[in-house]
Amino acid sequence: MAEELDLEFSERGSWLIARVIGILNLPVRDQLRQRVKAELEKRPGCDLVFDLSAVTAIDSSGLGAVFSIYKYLNERQLSLAMAAPNHDVATLFELTHLDKVIRIEKSLETFIG
Fold first, then answer.
1. Residues of the chain above pLDDT 70, percent
2. DSSP for the chain?
């Protein structure tokens, strides 16, 4: 049985919030891309913020999925941001230099305030 991605969506202003729970890895990579893109198509013009407060780990497949979503949004002149990553996840974004490309904030309130 395939692993199921735990993903919740909400909307605040011009931001679609995708709250990811658990691990972003190879078994859930395709689900993440497909479900996020489907939600974005329902809300044209919305920017996306990943609420990472409940993400315990992310691997290279998860990073690839995030970057794929970044490119999808960038082609539509929309933004992707990350909120509330734990120390290990934030460090991974720094090591891969994705923090130079994708906005990362310590809390979700930055986007919904």
1. 97
2. -PPPPEEEEEEETTEEEEEEEEEESHHHHHHHHHHHHHHHHHSTT-EEEEEEEEEEEE-HHHHHHHHHHHHHHHHTT--EEEE---HHHHHHHHHTTGGGTSEEES-THHHH-
